[in-house]
Amino acid sequence: MTRVGRPRSAAADAAILRAARELLVERGIGGASIEEVARRAGVSKVTVYRRWDSREALLAAAIESSADGLPGRTHTEADAAELDPEMTYDEMVTLVAAALPRAAEILASEEYRALLAQAFGSRFTHPEIMAAYWENHIVPRRRVAIPILARAVAEGRLPPETDVEAVLDMTIGALLYRLLRPGEITPAEMLDHLRRVYRQAGLLPDA
């Protein structure tokens, strides 16, 4: 949880989150203490605690900050599908298609993949981190995708008996499977994977 108080320094925020991401990648959750984060960021522990109440809250924010620019994180083009329920299916998927190249760059980055592994690895050892990641990362993106799938069913692009929630779960699972699999992946490969999975799920039109 972020504290409320005097105006925050955006530069300090960025430095703290960057330091936390670096330490998570280099040393894991156990090596990313408040003291180490503050030291690397060049700030005091008090400065860190003014912004985040706990180490878990800070590390969850650090993991989520690696996803800046992904649809669902901020009001990017693809988020318009959630904001305007009157859009047609074609209009919705056009916005999704436009957002995919940037999403592929982020998802393919070594930092993002390493932080994703840390988030999922915290499920039992640091459940607060995984809970915050789920609420701030997964849930908003589901809110973007569900109206698209519902519109696809309504317009006959998907069978009327389609279980939208199950389709979305399978889509997310396919993406996570690829991201957590060993080996490098280029942005171009990730973009191709995104397009193929999204087409199968009804989140993109047929090629």
From TrEMBL:
Pfam families: TetR_C_11, TetR_N. Residues 10-70 form the HTH tetR-type domain. The keyword Oxidoreductase does not apply. PROSITE patterns: HTH_TETR_2. Keywords: DNA-binding, Transcription, Transcription regulation. Residues 33-52 bind DNA. This is TetR/AcrR family transcriptional regulator.
